[in-house]
Structures are given as C-alpha cells and as structure tokens.
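ESCALATION

Customer reports they have been waiting on this structure for their group meeting. Please prioritize. Original submission:
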Amino acid sequence: MTRAAGELDPRSVKIGGLDVHYGDSPQGSGTVLLLCGIGLTYRAYPKLISRFRQAGFRVVSPHIPDLAKVVDKAELEVTLKTIGIIAARFTDAVDIEEPLVVVGHSMGGGIAAETVAIYPERFYGMILINSIGPSDDREKARTTLDWALSFPSDLMMTRDILGTVSSVTGDVFRALGSDSQHLMSLANAAQRADITSALKSVRDAKIPAYVIHSDNDRVIRFRSYKKIVEILGCDSEVVQGAHGWMLTDARSIESSIMPKLLEMREVAYSHQGSFGSLLKEEVI
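Update from on-call: job pushed to the front of the queue and completed.
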C-alpha cells in the first residue's frame, strides 16, 4: 500500500541489543534526520515530512524514548548528550544518504546540537526549531512534571487545534502508556540540559545552522532562543505561533524552513568528497 507524502514507513533497527523504532521514506537527494519534541514521534509531523519529501529528501526519524532505553541499558545517565551519541549511532545503522541535515524540534533540537557536536563530519547542516537551549536557572526552578505537561498544553494553542489534536493523539496515549517511564527521564534530562558546549562546538566546526522560534511559545523561553543564536552566530527567524506551530502551519514551513534546508543541500553538493567511514567505534 502506498503511503501518503506525510507518512513514513515504520521500521526498527538493533542498537545495543534493543529495537529502536523509526520512520523512514524512500531514498532521495540527501537525508533529513528529524528529531522530534518530547512525547511526540514522526507521526505528529505530517505537513513537515510531506514538504521534505516533496523536495526530494529521504526522511528518517527515530523514536526518542527508544534511544533513552539504549542509554538505560548501558547503565548511563539519560542526558541529551548520551541520547545524542545513540542518535549518531542510529544514523550509521540505517545507512544514510548524504548530504545529511538534522532538523530538531524542542528537545529534539538539543539532541541535534549534541549529535552534531560529537560527529560534525557527518552533517552538512542543522536547523533548530523552538529548541531547548543553554542552561537557565529559572527553567530549572520548574518541576519536571510541569515542564513535561507544558508541551501538550502549548500544542492546543496552535491555529489549527483540530489538526493538532489529530496529529498528536496517538503519541499522547503512547507517552502515557508504554513510554511513560522514559518520558519522565527525558523531561528531567531536558529540564537540566545545558547545550552551551555543544553549540560552541557546532559553531567552531563551521556547520551551517539556522534557528527558528515562535512568538507565542510557552514551553521554551524567548531568552533561550536568543542565547542559542548568540552562541552559534547564525541567521535566525521568529514566526507566528505556539511551540508546535510546525505541526500544522504549512505556510510557515514553506517560507521559514524550506529555503534554508534547500540552501544547505545545494551548498553540500557544491563540495567534493564524502562523509568517510565514521561512527565505527563502539561508543556504548
């Protein structure tokens, strides 16, 4: 059965002896690694995925709680950095087509920065959307439960409420069920995260980056966005909408995300060489 443009084929791959579930699409001209916000999977991003695929990209998106399970099994602390290491191993396991650009939303943005910082040679670009940023004492004052619950409540503020509910319903039930334990560990990791060092490494590696925030985000504070832009020294943009604007706002996806993504691919193709043999050492 042929899938809609905004859908991905559900697959799984073994990492550290555990199944990591992910969504995948046919091979294309370059690959987008989509790292989702807390409690969400690729199923919540049909408009974003549809536009990526229309532009000819292959899209792969791992289930973040599964990455946390691999970290747990290794008896390591669940942090954005340890999850970023597993995300890097994931890209090696699924045989990525170059050039590879990572797009991270919310917590996924923090993981994206950590992943690129560890293995900059693998990436030709990074787009952060309403991303977790550097440490903020005022953010740490919020309880983990409050931080985790602020995300779904913010999603209800999108202009297309019915579309948003339809997109995230399955993920919400999954988060409250089989993923609940790892959802809380991820929320705790996100609350304590400080990706300052990772952002500096991405900047020093001269990886093209673009940062997008929205004007009515109640999950990630505006000051966090400003700090990210200041550290990376990259172009940025503020769009209208709540924390989950890209779930349903096709117009802003087209005007804000796609030009930079296509530019990154064009620049990547203008350079000679390949990724080389990377990520072959066992990290965990």
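Sent to customer with the following note: The chain has one domain: 9-270.
Escalation resolved.
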